Amino acid sequence: MAYKNPNLNNNAAPSGQSEYLPGVKNTIAVASGKGGVGKSTVAVNLAIAMAKDGAKVGLIDADLYGPSIPMMLGINEKPEMEVIDGKQKIKPIENYGIKVMSIGFLIDDNDPVIWRGAMASGAIKQFMSDVNWGELDYLIFDLPPGTGDIQLTIAQTIPMTGSIIVTTPQDVSLIDAKKALKMFRKVNVPVLGVIENMSYFVAPDTGNRYDIFGVGGGEKLAGELETKFLGGIPIDISIREGGDSGKPFVIQNPDSEYAQKFIEIGKNLAEQVKIKNAAASKIEIKL
Ligand SMILES: Nc1ncnc2c1ncn2[C@@H]1O[C@H](COP(=O)(O)OP(=O)(O)O)[C@@H](O)[C@H]1O
Ligand SMILES: [Mg+2]
Question: In terms of CATH architecture, what is 24-282?
Answer without folding.
Answer: 3-Layer(aba) Sandwich (3.40)
